[in-house]
Design brief:
The protein has 226 residues and is an alpha/beta fold. Helices cover 37% and strands 20% of the residues.
């Protein structure tokens, strides 16, 4: 199976969710590397541990988003180095070619065919689009079978489970249900892209990546959105 994994930038920032935490990044590099024993893996990271464009004050939104895109390049290149240090093949593609390999769909697909871990950085390369949208877009371009969004919680809830102990967890739901109920699974653009192109999404806790089979087969370990 070919999987695109969406990682939030915050998980790379360690307990504080800020900056680059070498211990946390090394840990996730190991988890991701284990997945490649059974599956081809592409990765899109967020950049919120460094800068979140839409919440930056005093900077034009378009420029802030461009800075946020650079943050995702920093995250991808750092994660790539940790993967390489552990003996895994990993390549970073970006629309910022002086920092990484130029993103060309056929080149990225070829790298996946060779079982390299492919990191795609820089979002969609356009402002006003989130890294959720980038993840959905790249998953479709790279002909992935599944999009996995790894978060702090073990699936999709109707409220924040950290704030509401009575929050209801969903084992499965449709994209239309998620959109109509405004569950915040991913941004609207990303969900519509997945829905219209029949790309399934699983939402899981990032630690569950240590057992990929549980994510793919057990709806108690992840929520399936289809």
């Amino acid at each position: 199976m070919r999987i695109l994994l969406k990682l939030s930038g915050e998980v790379l920032g360690g307990p504080q969710g800020l900056g680059l935490d070498a211990q946390a990044i090394g840990h996730f590099a190991t988890l991701i590397g284990h997945i490649t024993a059974k599956h081809q893996v592409a990765i899109v990271t967020g950049g919120g541990n460094i800068l979140r464009g839409k919440s930056t004050e005093g900077i034009d939104r378009s420029m802030a988003d461009q800075i946020g895109m650079m943050a995702t390049v920093i995250n991808a290149m750092t994660l790539q180095q940790h993967l390489l240090a552990r003996g895994y093949m990993a390549r970073t593609f970006s629309d910022v070619p002086s920092l990484a390999e130029p993103y060309v769909i056929t080149h990225a697909r070829a790298a996946l065919d060779l079982d390299a871990i492919v990191l795609v950085a820089g979002g969609t390369s356009n402002p006003y689009f989130t890294t959720d949208s980038a993840a959905a877009l790249r998953a479709l371009e790279l002909k992935c079978d599944l999009l996995i969004k790894a978060t702090k919680v073990d699936g999709v809830y109707d409220a924040d489970p950290f704030k509401n102990k009575d929050a209801k967890r969903f084992e499965t739901l449709t994209f239309q249900q998620a959109i109509d109920s405004k569950l915040g699974v991913m941004d609207l653009t990303a969900m519509v892209l997945c829905q219209e192109n029949h790309l399934p999404l699983r939402v899981c806790a990032v630690e569950a990546l240590s057992d990929i089979d549980s994510i793919l087969l057990d709806n108690k370990k992840s929520t399936l959105v289809h």
